[in-house]
Every structure is written in C-alpha cells, then in structure tokens.
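Marked as duplicate of an earlier ticket. Keeping the data here for the record.
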Amino acid sequence: MGIDEYGGGQGPHPDVLVVTTNDVPGYEVRQVIGEVFGLTVRSRHLGSQIGAGLKSMIGGELKGLTKTLVQTRNQAMERLVEQAKARGANAVLMFRFDVTEAADVGTEVCAYGTAVVIGPRA
C-alpha cells in the first residue's frame, strides 16, 4: 500500500494518504480526527474569458480554463493535506471536491474529507 504504521504514503502527498473510499484495505482506522478541507477561490482571467467565449461558439475544449481548474483543484487539495497533517492525520478518507460559482466573479473549489490515523490491520 505504501503507508507504514504512522504515515509515509506514496504519490504527491507522501505524508498523508488521500482516498475517496470509506476505508483502506489491510488497514484500520485507529483515530478519527474529523473533517478537514482546503478551499480556494479563483477569479476569472479576462483573456481566458474572451477565449472561452469564442471557443464556445465553435466547440472544443477550453484548454485555458481546464488548466486553471486543474491548478485550482491541486491548490485546494494541498491545503486539505496541510490541514490534515497539522491535526496529526496520516490519511484522509471520503475525499471529495465541491465546485461552485463565487458571486459571479470566480470559482470556489473546496476539497474535503475525514482526517484519520490509520495503521496496519492487526
């Protein structure tokens, strides 16, 4: 699995395993810390808005907006992991994203889940 008894996962967040599932096969939840989240709000860039408007008339992927959304989601996830680590977690279960419009000026992205301490099943 790539996570030792007290942390040390693999991937972009080696200290905190982040999964969308309720549990991790072969591991047990030893402590539930609680909800953690990472939030960011991004304003729309005028150039990408104009480009998106033109592109939407002829069809196709809005690559500039896609890139911005990926960066925004990554930033929200980084903040979630930082919060989980600060609270002593080595895993986040039930990880999700929520994306909403923020007062017609940008996009709010919230990454959230349940921070826990997991260890190998006895």
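See parent ticket for discussion. The beta strands are 17-18, 27-43, 91-102, 106-120.
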